[in-house]
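Each record in this resource describes a single protein on a pair of labelled lines. The shape at a given residue is found from the number at the same position. The record below illustrates this layout:

***
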Amino acid sequence: MAGALSVDQRLDLITQGIPPEDVHGIGAIRSALEDPNRTPKCLWVTSPTGKPHVGYYVPLLKFADFLKAGCEIIVVLLDVYSYLDNVKYPMSQVRQRMYYYKFIVIAALESIGIPTSKITFVEESSYQFSREWIMDQWKLCTIVPQQAVKDAWDRSYNPDMLSPMFCPGIQTLAEEHLDVDFQFGGADQRGIFAFAERFLPEFGYRERGHLMNPMIPSLHGSKMSSSHPPKTKIMFLDDAEVVKEKVLEAPWPGLDTAKNGVLSLLKNVLIPVAQFQLGQRNATGASDINGAVYTNGDTTMATSIAEDIAFTIEVDGKRRIFSSYNEVGQSLADGSIQPDAVKIAVAKGINDLLNHVRKMYENDLEWQIVDKLAYPETT
């Protein structure tokens, strides 16, 4: 598919949906696309902390655009970074969490319908013991002020321990040592990306692009985070009743999706996933797609009008069809649908999406064992 697209079309795919101010180093990305002997490489990292939440669907869905543009995606599982940053859990447990995250990411991608054949999973520690990497690490330590490290974090951060101070640097060096062309991450990576843009050129290394996806708020307002209390987020393996309870009990702070976690899930996860799956269905003529998201479960009806439907909400016993989030927002604003109806539909949609992930977990003994070793306090 990518071979039939121009460089501009591929670049548009890579950057679509990303706020212009969150696209950095676009020239580096274009150069990689223009090189006939190179497959552009995208880096996405994940640090295994608490159990992942459904906010991960936002960046994972973007993988589809990168693949369509002909990019290779490298997913780095940050075992060393996480160990240095948390200063609490032993490396043996951190590595089990790393394996757990890999299971989750693969299952989530499959639930959307994104193939993993062109996605390479790399354990961070696998490349950090070469002489070249170690020398770069020590060189970085000689040119980076302590304040620059503190400035790289997305929060007020003044670590008491030495180990977290290494984290921005080791993520930065991954760009060179994995030979990527751009790194993709959440808006909370802004500081680390700025760190890379500042210090990699001092090594004489080439410029990399950086793209940032918007962050989903928690069900209670602040950023959805794996380290926050369970009631504030929906976990991939929450059972259906727990998901429904969390969504129905979530606050409703107006129509601002930056503050309303339920609407943010609808706008940034459910509708985009449904639109992607419907597009895939139209392109392939397939009768079904794993993890399809329809709030009424009626895929036959959805298939027949695939270009017009993205989400349905039951109002007064009848299904209302919406082709975009803007239509939902307008109906909320004019009072033709009520928040409770949206909450019920969102809970149903999330559960439809998570069914595939739950089934994969139930059928995978290795994943279940890893779960117990990674999170013994919750299993």
